[in-house]
Amino acid sequence: MTEELLRVEGLEAGYGAYKVLHGVSFDLSNGQNIGFFGPNGHGKTTLFETISGLIRQTAGKIIFDGTDITNASSDAIVEMGLVHVAQGNTLFPDMTVMEVLQLGAFPKRSRQKLRSNLDRAFSIFPRLTARRSSKCKTLSGGERQMLNLATGLMACPRLLILDEPTLGLSPRLKEELVRPISDIENSGVSLILVEQDLEFLLLLVQRLLLLNHGRITKRIDRQSEQVSHQEIMEEYFGVAVTHES
Fold it and tell me: What is the CATH number of domain 4-87+157-237?
């Protein structure tokens, strides 16, 4: 049986008196990857900011690799190998690609592997090799997202949370991200992928969780269930989806 890597139990969180998450529970085993989908504003980003220590929960528990990290600081969580690549590929505009990648290796556990991690990042994202001396503000949208993901890899993650990595990208650039994200998964890093683009999500994950109004309302195991894309879309929109002729 695969060892459990992450367990979230009855998680509740929000902003002041406004509660966003209402008893969210799920688990993830080593070597697995899962995808979250659901409407905007229903708690996906809040969930993963809570798991990564950026927001404090009001109830529930978070266990990572057998350790309770519910009240741990965000830097301690990263040091353990749980790395959250946030939505929006916000980078330091006047820093070079190489400087940003080196900055990503700030955890103690990754500093000794700086050279090998740089080699891995450039291998997975070869387009960044030619841009290593370029400032971030000169990168295209696709290159910025590649750098965002590569910087997360520099921290030696055991679990990588990717929050909407295709946000704002063209269909062609989305297609270009499938292979490198698959390469990350194949390198032994477990993934939690948050996406609005269901087509993209279905290419990369075996388990799907629908987060709706701060609750997981549907769990789909694609390895054991025969679920069509149409059925998943209907779960997403809450109504039967018809195609016009």
Answer: 3.40.50.300
